[in-house]
Every structure is written in C-alpha cells, then in structure tokens.
Give the backbone structure.
Amino acid sequence: MKQFFIIIFSAFLLLSCSYFEKKYKKEEIQAVDTIVDFNSIDSFPLFPACDSIPSEEKQKICSQIKLSEHIYASLVTHKFISKNSVNDTILVKLEVAKSGEVSLINIQSSAFIQEEIPELDSLITDGIKKLPKLKPGIKRGMPVKTAFSLPIILKN
C-alpha cells in the first residue's frame, strides 16, 4: 500500500510539473513583440494650429493645407513673368525631424519650369526655412523623423 501511494504521488508530481512548464511556455510566446512597420507612422507631423482637431485624418489634411498656404504666401509676394503658359506640378520633398524642425530634401520640377521660373527653387527654400516648428510624427508613442512630399500646382 505504501508503494502504491509513492507511485501515485510521484506520477502526480511528474504530470503537474509538465503542466506548469507548458503553461509557462505559452505565456512566454505571447510576450513576443509584434512586427514594426517602419514605413508608416501612428501620427502625421502637425502644424501648430492643427493639433486641436479631434480627427487624425482631418489633422493631416489641415497640416498639409497650412504648409501649402505658408509656401504659397512666400511665393505670392513675387511676380513671375514667363514667356509661355505654365500648367505644371512640382513635388517638394520635406523632412520633419524629431525636434519638429522642417528641412527640404529636394524639389522635383520639370526642365520647362526650371527654364521658365529659375528662381522658384530658391523662393520655395526660403519659405520652408521660415516655417514654424511642427509637432513631429509619432510612432509607438515616440517622436520620429518623417519625410513626405507636398505637391505644388503652378498655373497662369
């Protein structure tokens, strides 16, 4: 009888140890972090006047409009004279640092625009230098450097 209780007690210990071991392994696997998508951000860089808008999509649109308005304001003070009709789009690639500073990466424009309005690039660069600090993009609760393109349509 004594041996019977020892065998049952030993079997109970062996089975219970493996039960706890399997449970522990499942919890460990669940603790593994998810895959991080480095091509997307949780929150777009925001212009100072746009951060009070409740919807994230509307905040993004507001910031793009404010950036365009700011660049347009720096261009509207100059009179451009071209020999030919202009109807083209240029892409201004910007970068917002973790600190919120905006810098110009490059300006993509056609050879026609560069010939017709050679001073355009320098005027856009000056307008970007005068931009206020933006609220940086957010990824997983941390500010991140963000790059994006802003199209500017030119017509006369």
Remarks:
- The first helix runs from residue 2 to 30.
